Amino acid sequence: MTSPPAAPGAGGRIQQRPQRPQSKTGRPDGGTTSRRELSRHARFAEVSPEVGILDERAMSQALADDPAAFELLAAMTRATDENLRAAAIRLSASIVLERARAGRPTMGGVSRLRTVRGAADGDLDIDASLEGVSAARAEARLVSAEDLVTVQWAKAPTAFAVVVDRSGSMGGARLAAAATVAAACALRAPQEHAVLSFAGTVDVIRPLVSDITPAVVAERLLRVRGHGVTRLGAALKAAGEQLAAARARRRVVILLSDCRSTDEDDTLPAARALDELIILAPGDDHEQAAHLATLAGARWAVIDRPLDAATALDRLLQTRVTA
To answer: Is CATH 3.30.565.10 correct for 157-323?
Structure first.
């Protein structure tokens, strides 16, 4: 994944970050996971008793016993066994959507007072309603809701662009976190949310305005295979271009990446040009994400478990609202 420039060295010069370390699994980028590897998990035989089979009831029980079992399900989205992989992707997408719905779908905008005529709720604005009441009396009729003005709290709309790193270090758990965030954004900003993935090039999985459903987006993200180098600057620019057409006043780019550098680009200027940037980084590799956040004035958080991603996102959105 791509990185911001390193901290200044001697004489204030920017130093290049070291290259990405070797994969912890030893598999090449985009590789699949064999049943032998998956069987190292204590409950694998229970949830997949034979080739091509995923026992959803057993998986649900495993998740009820220990939410960390989702890591096994995420790993199975990379299974060499095609039938098992497809079943794991479908179930993961379903769980991701369920978890996103359990969040706070009203989050994402700053509450502001507004006056509304003819509304059935809110607090009555007596001064603003005097004209309507006087008109009703003059016409010898009962005062109706249309004659009254109320004051309500309303949230300004928010538009999101979710940017998902699909370079070599992306695994099942990280893509599951990305799918969770994308689903959360779909529920919080159903009218305007874009989803992009990137490595050497940028792909638009869902444009800002589209009828592509959250379930389809989740499955597409879970099917992404990590590979190649990364151009983070280009991805952030593409996200900004998507949000440029948004009607919402608040425009947030959400980046899921470890922000490691494999190629020099214009990441920092692109990050600073965004209205608002949130970075969600993997718990075991977040140093450079923190570095970029500091340089760009972004907010960031660590994601230790994929299903915690929506909660972390809500917390960071609220931090900006209350700051």
So the answer is: no
**Domain boundaries, given as residue ranges, for the chain:** 27-99, 111-155, 157-323
Of 194, 207, 196, 199, nearest in space to 170 by CA: 199
- How many whole angstroms separate alpha carbon 281 and alpha carbon 298? 13
**Amino acid at the residue 63:** L
Q: Which of 22, 36, 260, 285 is nearest to 174 (CA)?
A: 285
For residue 123, what pLDDT is reported?
Answer: 72
User: Among residues 98, 59, 97, which one has the least CA distance to residue 75?
Assistant: 59
Give the global pTM: 0.69
In angstroms, the CA 186 to CA 164 distance is: 15
Helix (H) or strand (E) holding 84: helix 82-101
Whether the pLDDT of residue 207 is over 50: the answer is yes
Count H helices and E strands in the chain, helices first: 12, 9
pLDDT band at 226, cuts 50/70/90?
low
Contact of 173 with 33, CB cutoff 8 Å: no
Tell the burial category of 156 from Cβ atoms under 10 Å away from its Cβ (0-12, 13-18, 19+): middle
Predicted confidence (pLDDT) per residue in 149-190, tens digit: 887 545 558 899 999 998 866 666 777 888 888 888 888 888
Q: Which long-range contacts (CB under 8 A, 24 or more apart) does 121-124 make?
A: 121/150, 121/152, 122/150, 122/151, 122/152, 123/150, 123/151, 123/152, 124/148, 124/149, 124/150, 124/151
CA atoms within 13 A on the CB side of 221: 36
